[in-house]
Design goal:
The protein has 170 residues and is an alpha+beta fold. 37% of the residues lie in helices and 15% in strands. It contains six helices and four strands; from the N terminus they run αααβββαβαα. β1 and β2 form a beta hairpin. The chain is globular, with a radius of gyration of 16 Å.
Length: 170
């Protein structure tokens, strides 16, 4: 796969895969930076500026979800936004449960993005990170049901990893 440098995506890093801006439903994650043999897996420095950019330019649905995930609202588990794992940036990540949440816009239906997503899925699975993908259209159709679905995912993952649920702060 050829790599192009997008001004926003590169931010003085080595070549990054071309992405759409968040305002067009892209960039919420899945950026692939150049491969490296030596790297810090969690929040690597090479993705820091892009993670900051994505946190400051979240999509409508990312903002709404963040309001329901931040502050340990999901059974006391800390959730981070625009979190770096290896060469990828995840929309939301709960380190304690190794649970990643991606909000996918229309850009995820393009072949090159689907290939990147498949690589991301595979890499996260290698680290025993469970990935939950949410479509913008599903969030738009029934947001409350998606939040309930995520609560169920947090409960199931906690049970799977023998982690205790804390009292929900709502």
């Amino acid at each position: 796969m050829s790599k192009e440098c997008n001004e926003v995506a590169c931010l003085n890093y080595e070549k990054a895969t071309k992405i759409s801006p968040p305002s067009q439903g892209g960039a919420g994650g899945g950026l692939l930076f150049s491969e490296s043999n030596s790297f810090d897996m969690l929040n690597p420095k090479r993705t820091k500026r892009m993670r900051q950019y994505l946190r400051n330019n979240m999509t409508k649905w990312e903002v709404m979800l963040w309001s329901d995930l931040k502050g340990r609202k999901m059974f006391g588990f800390k959730v981070r936004r625009q979190y770096g794992i290896d060469n990828y940036i995840i929309d939301f990540y709960c380190p304690e449960l190794k649970l990643a949440i991606e909000v996918d816009g229309d850009v995820h239906y393009f072949k090159n993005k689907m290939d990147l997503d498949a690589r991301k899925n595979q890499r996260l699975a290698q680290e025993n990170i469970k990935l939950v993908r949410l479509k913008n259209s599903d969030l738009s159709d029934d947001y409350e049901s998606i939040v309930i679905y995520l609560e169920d995912m947090f409960k199931a993952r906690a049970h799977e990893l023998n982690k205790k649920l804390k009292k929900n702060s709502d």
